[in-house]
Amino acid sequence: MAGADLALLLLILACALLRAAGLLVAGRLRPDHPFVRWAASVALATLAAFIMLAILAPGGALAGIPWWARAAGVLGALGWMRFQGGMLGPLLAGLAVTAAGWAISAG
Length: 107
Description:
Blueprint: H1 3-25, H2 34-56, H3 67-83, H4 88-106
């Protein structure tokens, strides 16, 4: 397993463990409790770091996607988030814009 793949797997496991811990203490802690805010911040910061790494210094198959298509995907996700909110919508919008840019560059 490559280093980046192992790092991604460890990230997924860490986030899953944080979510499981959150479920265990969900009934006991308020949503504004410092531990809950800390756990959410760590998970979000880790995800943001991996997204930025994938955009700025991609490896593997992602390296074949032009930088402008990756940047357009980020703008698409941010635009969706600005007007609709949520997490799944911006993710799918960013992926769709990136895939469209990739298809245009390959075509």
